[in-house]
Amino acid sequence: MEKLKRLDARIIIGEFSYVGARNVFCEAFKRKMYGPNYAWIIFGEFSPTKIFADDPKLRNSVLSDCSSDELKEAADGYISTIKLDIRKDNNQTISGLTSERFWWQMRQLNEHNNLRKDSAYAFDSAWVVAMALDSAFAKGMKYEKLLNRKFKQVAAIRSGIQNINFAGLTGPVGFDENRETVGTVLIKQNRDGNETRIGQHFTSSDELHLFESERNKIWEDNRPPKDHTSRKIELMMSPLPLIVIMWLMAAIGIICSLSFLYFNISKGKNRIIKMSSPKLNNIIIMGCILCYASIVLLGLDARFLDLQGYGINCNVRKLIINEHAV
């Protein structure tokens, strides 16, 4: 966490149990790594109530020493992604069943209503096996070879699995070039301790669908956090009218100084001029001219110079001021 804070990470992805989540969000609370400027994305499914549970036994069993309210404040707004247990539409699948019809039949076959969420995955997996075997049999594999498979039979079954693509109870069912399953990922967001479904990601088409009713509620002011703190360099510039006025006054000062210098040099043989230390006066006049010239250089900013020219101007200005000081 200290390294993430030092790197100024604002979008943080993690995968841990609810015990690990308590520790992580406790550290996030201590380091102020939460709020509208941070986005926490968590893989896995666990109830927020387990993270916020104010159970003394649970608190003593983990490293977290934060209160339930502190954990709730730090974890508010995190986004979690889980596999979709069953499709939410009522479209007919390859089996001829809809999701509602499937659950109805499952309740009829079971004495209790506490059904496993992954029942639909087991159902689709059975269809994958059936379709893969059907494809292998169509290519000439014999049923008797199933118990004594060789490379040819294994390759036929694997080819059948890779070509599978059908509408299952869990959504689109298929496999990519890496033989990983493609399907639908459900996206939730923790809001005041309650997980709200905000969208779905279809891995088969790599499309993200946010529910219209939740689209404008995900981020504060509908502005997602940036992945780092934005730093913008702004050059401080003086008002242009002020610069013009100072340049005019500096120009008048330079003209007057040159006039005095010319008078001192041209009338150098005059007795009164000789008695007034003309050389010292000339040095003073030259210092005034350099001082006025530095005013002109000080007014040259980003409106007149590029980055390279600005560096040269700084060096010249420093040189003139140093010469004037000497």
UniProtKB/TrEMBL annotation:
SUPFAM superfamilies found in the cross-reference section: Periplasmic binding protein-like I (SSF53822)
Transmembrane region(s): 240-263, 283-300
Keywords: G-protein coupled receptor, Glycoprotein, Membrane, Receptor, Transducer, Transmembrane, Transmembrane helix
InterPro entries xrefs: ANF_lig-bd_rcpt, GPCR3_GABA-B, GPCR_3_C, Peripla_BP_I
Domain G-protein coupled receptors family 3 profile: 241-318
UniProt topology in membrane: Multi-pass membrane protein
Key word Glycoprotein present: yes
Location(s), subcellular: Membrane
Annotated ranges, domain Receptor ligand binding region: 4-186
Annotated Pfam families: 7tm_3 (PF00003), ANF_receptor (PF01094)
Database matches in PANTHER family: GABA-B RECEPTOR, GAMMA-AMINOBUTYRIC ACID TYPE B RECEPTOR SUBUNIT 2
Protein name: Gamma-aminobutyric acid type B receptor subunit 2
